[in-house]
Predict the structure.
Amino acid sequence: MWNDESLELFINANHDHTTYNHFSANLRGDLYDARGGPGCGKFGDKTWNANWRSAAKTFPDHYVMEVAIPYAELGMDSPKSGDLIGQPAHPHYSVWSASVIASVVMPKCSHTS
């Protein structure tokens, strides 16, 4: 999966900077998920299987992917305006946090190299 074009998300839903949910999807529709944090091992708890889906569309010069992850799979209720959902810091990944505006998650992106 990681040798293909894919999307990976590391979501720290409760914004504790310790635990995370890892989601990965590729253009063929293969899905991977795991939970990480203290006691979950180097690559997280891979036995955790979330109920989520992805879709992709390929164009000659780019592709578009979307994912649908229910809030319940992140261990949270529907967020309220102003709630924060973050990503655990990692030196090789883009880092984002999202603030919730009227039940729509609006990401704020930055990239670390």
The longest strand covers residues 94-101. Confidence is low (pLDDT under 50) at residues 96-113.
